[in-house]
Specification:
Blueprint (H helix, E strand, L loop, with lengths): L5 H9 L11 H11 L3 H13 L5 H21 L3 H20 L7 H27 L4 H29 L8 H22 L7 H21 L4 H20 L3 H14 L14 H20 L3 H17 L6 H16 L3 H15 L3 H15 L9 H14 L3 H14 L7 H21 L3 H15 L7 H20 L2 H16 L7 H16 L4 H21 L4 H21 L3 H23 L11 H26 L2 H15 L2 H4 L4 H17 L3 H14 L4 H26 L7 H7 L5 H20 L7 H13 L3 H15 L7 H25 L2 H19 L2 H4 L2 H12 L1 E5 L2 E5 L5 H17 L6 H20 L5 H13 L9 H11 L1
Antiparallel strand pairs: 1-2
Helix pairs in contact: 1-10, 2-3, 2-4, 3-4, 4-5, 5-6, 6-7, 6-8, 7-8, 8-9, 8-10, 9-10, 10-11, 10-12, 11-12, 12-13, 12-14, 13-14, 14-15, 14-16, 15-16, 15-17, 16-17, 17-18, 18-19, 19-20, 19-21, 20-21, 21-22, 22-23, 23-24, 23-25, 24-25, 25-26, 25-27, 26-27, 27-28, 27-30, 28-30, 30-31, ...
Length: 987
């Protein structure tokens, strides 16, 4: 055969079974989806669109039906249930027949390919049916029905092929190659169909022998017609010889069978196999491999094992010389060769070939056959030491590549391999292959979802082979050991798995390997211990946190990628231990732990700020900044607790001095750490106050107000500054005013004229402003005494508006509460009364009537409450203010008296003024300014009442005249203008 003409020959052979479409169509694409990838749903969508999609041609619609039929055929082939299988075949048959019937272009290559597809389907359906019948297990009725259907399928297929053969006539390949190809393909298919149908008969029966004889005769004609000088025809003849060999074998004619198989092998062009670069075309290689397979299978049936080995050695030599890799049928032929060697007792030879096939097969049918043979060879050999380690290793890897349940075999073979390791002379090779075996066994267990066994396999390999450097296999075994256990712990939470993981981690700590740093393991162990501590209380929690701190310390000592995190964690957990001991009143151990924790935080800051430890990845900078901020904050926290434990002012002062450098500038450096910034600036206020730096403390307080004016730490800082400033300011103020208070207006007016009064008052007001900010911050201070103090402060310095506001808020907060002393509540109301009267008069003078009305009404409520209490109902100042609130007052505006009615309750005011006047007379104070005030308002209230009731004013005028007769000056310059004003109103 001329090898130069092989491409044309192969193309002709391909045309026997593949349609020569002009382009790759949707039909071809969808066939690939279901045949190659099993994407039946996607393929069905495409086929359905071909059948019914808008704009589809008639040809595409029939291709769609044919495609659906082929898809159903493949699904039937995959299913094991007989009924489902036959139902799917029947659906496929109906679709295929409809496609052929409706094909738009008859007598075309595509049309005949559709018929061939239908024929193949009918044949496969018939074979499946007869196989089920011959296997038994069916009822007589079902068997009869299924057999009848099968015969019908075969009959219809034969009819179609006979029709094609008859229709095509006797074309010559030289004159009408297209028609010749269709006839030849149909003719060969007809032979194959009759052969397969004949095999449905029982062996030795006339139902098998007669049809086989007829097929033999038909094949002789087919071969004779194709055995010409035409290369393409001769390929057809080769396939005829192979089928003839199978027919003669079934007819029990071994000589003829062997001759037909071997004739194909002998006629292939092998002579050029010793020429460099000579090879076989893939299609021709497939033909040869099929020939070898059929020959070996037949010879093994004949128990001619030596002949199989002879041909097998020849086959392997030829393929090696041509540098050919065995394809599927070639690998299957090699499995038959291995089987022959096994039967001849060559265990190593059989195992070597079978193992090579398993490893190269990638899970196809030849690999399955080879794997079965490997198992048979190994099982049949009691003394495993006779095997070569390389062969067993190859068998193990081959079984592993098969996947699924075959991995159990792989594990068993690797275990055998480990038993015969000593046969490998080179130590490095031996150690590497041992590590490789453990690696594969671990993976096999892992893929079978036996994660614990996988981990133990990796563990054994890591321990035995940790020094294997090739392929980093020692490191990889160790890594997989740990990863597998981490996976088990995460998915199951098993305590036993955790113990195994702990043991693994301890091994890594003792044997640092690869990317798994001992420091990282220690760090994670410490994390777990710390996490467990969070759920504990009391001494148990203290002990667990101490353990975590020690473990973090070990991680720091080991170094590695987690060193920095371990440093801050060590310090943090150490501080946590100290805090818990402090709360448990264990002062001595708490003090020691605080010193240790503080030193750890200082060490971290030094480490983080060392230029040699500069971060290479900027994304971690924010984490470091956060840790540095925490360290500075925690140093301050540690020192505060040490202050509490010491209880010594000098120690406290020393510790604040030590703390101050960590506090300075914190809020600028760590702007994002708002909570910590508030705490640190607040501590800075305390540190500066401890050092006597009050201006510095006030500057820091201003920063706190900028951060959060309502925060408790801001409030606390305010009161600390107030406490620091108050003694001096109060002393200066008290030196000027003595015991005089604003509740005595006359005395207060005199003292306010003293030199230095206002500066001293303003200085104390500034101090009391800190107290006020502290009191009102957030939701306000919760304690009654705090409000009582600050309310008193603002009243003491005569700040009427602030005093009114504070007392009003205090009453709203505490009045009615059982915890609030009733006597102090009344004092607050009395102060509010005094403040409101003064503010109301100020509003009246300014023309702010709305403000004045609100203040007078509130003052009226206070007066009502106070007059019910004897202490206040007998107090001249309280009664006088109440009289003004209820009955109004007269003031001078623009040189003229103006009356403000206030609440306008003149009857109540008259009684109060009457009590005041009588009290003054009883005290022999008639004629005093206070008595004239009472006298004026008694007359004025009487006037208002008479006027309101439209009474005659003569009686009141007579009383006023009599008063004037007795006291012509009406009390002098202070009161005469008001009496004269009243007189004008009366006349």
């Amino acid at each position: 055969m001329d090898c130069k003409r092989l491409p044309g020959l192969i193309l002709g052979l391909l045309l026997l079974s593949v349609p020569a479409y002009a382009q790759y169509s949707d039909y071809d694409w969808a066939r690939g989806l279901t045949r190659e990838f099993g994407f039946d749903d996607m393929a069905e969508t495409v086929f359905q669109d071909l059948v019914g999609g808008k704009g589809r041609t008639k040809l595409e619609r029939q291709q769609g039906q044919l495609g659906l039929a082929e898809m159903k055929q493949l699904q039937a082939r995959r299913t094991k249930d007989l009924k489902t299988k036959l139902d799917l075949f029947d659906e496929a048959r109906k679709l295929s027949q409809a496609a052929v019937k409706g094909w738009p272009e008859k007598n075309t290559n595509r049309y005949y390919q559709a018929i061939f597809a239908l024929v193949d389907l009918l044949q496969e359906r018939g074979e499946a049916a007869m196989k089920a019948v011959n296997a038994g297990g069916l009822s007589e009725a079902d068997a009869t029905r299924i057999q009848k259907d099968a015969e019908s399928d075969y009959g219809r297929a034969e009819t179609e092929l006979e029709r094609i053969k008859s229709t095509m006539g006797n074309p010559e390949p030289e004159t009408d190659r297209a028609k010749w190809r269709i006839k030849n393909a149909g003719w060969y298919r007809l032979c194959l169909l009759k052969y397969n149908k004949a095999l449905t008969g029982k062996a030795g029966s006339s139902k098998r022998l007669i049809p086989l004889t007829n097929v033999s005769a038909m094949l002789e004609d087919y071969i004779l017609e194709n055995e010409t000088e035409d290369e393409e025809a001769r390929i057809g003849a080769f396939y005829g010889y192979l089928l003839m060999g199978q027919v003669r074998a079934k007819l029990d004619d071994p000589s003829e069978a062997k001759g037909n198989f071997s004739s194909v092998i002998d006629q292939v062009f092998w002579e050029g196999s010793d020429v460099e670069g000579a090879t076989l075309h893939p299609m021709l290689q497939q033909l040869v491999e099929q020939a070898y397979y059929l020959l070996f299978d037949f010879l093994i049936e004949q128990e001619e094992y030596d002949a199989v080995v002879k041909y097998g050695v020849e086959m392997e030599a030829r393929f090696k010389r041509m540098d050919l890799s065995f394809k599927k049928l070639g690998r299957a032929a090699r499995v038959k060769l291995a089987e022959a060697r096994l039967r001849l007792g060559d265990m190593n030879g059989a195992l070597r070939i079978a193992a090579e096939v398993v490893e190269s097969a990638r899970g196809d049918a030849s690999g399955t056959l080879a794997n079965q043979l490997v198992a048979e060879v190994i099982t049949a050999t009691p003394d495993k030491s006779q095997f070569s380690p390389d062969i067993i290793r190859s068998a193990a890897k081959g079984a592993f590549s098969q996947g699924g349940e075959k991995r159990y075999d792989a594990i068993r073979y690797f275990q055998i391999f480990l038993q015969i390791l000593d046969k490998i002379p080179d130590e490095a090779t031996r150690k590497y292959q041992e590590a490789d075996a453990w690696f594969y066994m671990g993976r096999a267990y892992y893929f079978m979802n036996r994660r614990v066994e996988a981990a133990m396999g990796f563990a054994e390999g890591a321990k035995r082979c940790k020094d294997v450097k090739k392929d980093d296999l020692g490191e990889e075994l160790a890594r997989l050991w740990r990863v597998s256990l981490l996976d088990v712990v995460e998915t199951t939470g098993s305590k036993e798995a955790r113990k195994l993981l702990d043991a693994c981690n301890n091994w890594f700590i003792a044997n640092p390997m690869g990317q798994v740093a001992p420091g990282t393991i220690l760090y994670k162990q410490a994390l777990a211990i710390e996490s467990a501590a969070k759920s504990l209380r009391g001494s148990a929690a203290i002990g667990k946190y101490e353990e975590a701190a020690r473990k973090y310390g070990e991680a720091v000592a080991k170094g590695g990628p987690k060193k920095e995190q371990a440093m801050i964690k060590r310090a943090r957990t150490g501080l946590k231990v100290a805090e818990l001991q402090f709360l448990a009143k264990q002062a001595a151990p708490a003090k020691a732990k605080l010193e240790t924790a503080k030193a750890a935080f200082v060490a971290y800051i030094k480490y983080a700020e060392d230029p040699t430890n500069k971060l290479t990845d900027p994304k971690y900078q924010s984490s470091r900044d956060g840790a540095r901020a925490e360290a500075r904050y925690s140093i301050a926290r540690s020192n505060r607790l040490l202050m509490k434990i010491a209880g010594d002012p000098e120690i406290t002062k020393t510790l604040w001095k030590e703390t101050l450098p960590y506090l300075i500038g914190f809020e600028k450096t760590y702007r994002r750490q708002r909570g910590m910034s508030l705490a640190m600036v607040s501590d800075r206020v305390r540190a500066r106050l401890s050092a006597g730096d009050i201006p510095g403390a006030e500057a820091d307080y201003a920063i706190l107000k900028g951060l959060d004016p309502q925060h408790p730490k801001t409030a606390y800082s305010a009161v600390l500054i107030g406490q620091a400033l108050r003694p001096a300011a109060k002393k200066a103020f008290e030196a000027i005013v003595g015991t005089v208070t604003p509740t005595n207006p006359a005395s207060w007016a005199k003292v306010s004229q003293k030199s230095g009064f206002e500066p001293a008052r303003q200085s104390l007001k500034r101090v009391y402003s800190y107290y006020r900010e502290w009191l009102l911050a957030g939701e306000g201070q919760p304690e009654f005494k705090s409000w009582d103090l600050v309310c008193w402060m603002w009243g003491r310095i005569g700040e009427v508006e602030s005093s009114s506001e504070l007392h009003r808020k205090a009453l709203a907060r505490f009045e009615g509460m059982s915890s609030a002393p009733a006597a102090r509540i009344l004092i607050w109301k009395n102060r509010l009364l005094h403040a409101n009267v003064g503010l109301a008069k100020k509003a009246d003078a300014a023309g702010q009537s709305d403000v004045a009305v609100r203040l007078w009404n509130e003052a009226g409520q206070m007066a009502e409450a106070l007059l019910k209490v004897s202490k206040y109902s007998r107090n001249p100042l309280t009664v006088r203010l109440a009289a003004e609130v209820f009955g109004g007052y007269v003031a001078t505006k623009g040189g003229l008296p103006v009356f403000y009615a206030n609440l306008g309750r003149f009857d109540k005011a008259q009684k109060l003024w009457s009590r005041i006047e009588k009290s003054l007379r009883a005290q022999a104070l008639s004629g005093t300014s206070r008595w004239w005030e009472a006298k004026f308002y008694l007359y004025h209230v009487a006037y208002l009442q008479d006027k309101d009731k439209r009474h005659d004013l003569k009686g009141l005028r007579r009383k006023l005249d009599a008063l004037q007769a007795a006291y012509p000056e009406f009390g002098g310059d202070a009161w005469r203008p008001f009496f004269e004003w009243l007189a004008r109103n009366l006349y």
